[in-house]
Design brief:
Layout lengths: L6 H6 L11 H9 L1 H10 L4 E2 H7 L5 H13 L3 E6 L5 E6 L1 H19 L1 H15 L3
Antiparallel strand pairs: 1-3, 2-3
Helix pairs in contact: 2-3, 3-6
Keywords: DNA-binding, Transcription, Transcription regulation
InterPro entries: HTH_HxlR (IPR002577), WH-like_DNA-bd_sf (IPR036388), WH_DNA-bd_sf (IPR036390)
GO molecular function: DNA binding
Length: 133
């Protein structure tokens, strides 16, 4: 079996991410992993081609971005559209579900960015007590 549940079982299932076999766990990993969250955040700004997205998500390899996009597309968060032109052109954009998830991620990103002075101070205190890592 490919890890999917029959439709009848999915309809009856109460999803609980804290349960080992809950099918929401892989999606949560895709959304909250470093590359997934950055990719969704970048696509929240609008439709992007692969190389535009790769430049926007600084540090991601071509292979990792490709894998991330495939996982997010499979989860229904990203739509991939191949344009019938030469050279080939592929655009990526968020689905309505992806837009909803990205909006919540953007709120978290803004919270973290806005509180970084406190985080940096906490790191300094921690390192002073326990030694720098």
């Amino acid at each position: 079996m490919d890890g999917q549940l029959p439709d009848a079982d999915v309809d009856a299932l109460a999803f609980d991410v804290f349960t080992r076999r809950c099918p929401s766990r892989p999606t949560l990993e895709h959304v909250t992993g470093r590359w997934g969250s950055l990719t969704l955040g970048a696509l929240a700004e609008g439709r992007l081609r692969f190389n535009e997205l790769r430049r926007r998500v600084d540090g991601v390899s071509e292979k990792m971005l490709s894998q991330t996009l495939q996982a997010l597309e499979r989860d229904g968060l990203v739509h991939r559209e191949a344009q019938p032109v030469n050279p080939p052109r592929v655009d990526y954009e968020l689905t309505p579900l992806g837009q909803e998830v990205a909006a919540r991620l953007i709120a978290l990103i803004e919270l973290v960015e806005g509180r970084m002075p406190e985080v940096l101070t906490a790191r300094e205190r921690y390192d002073a007590v326990r030694g720098a890592r």
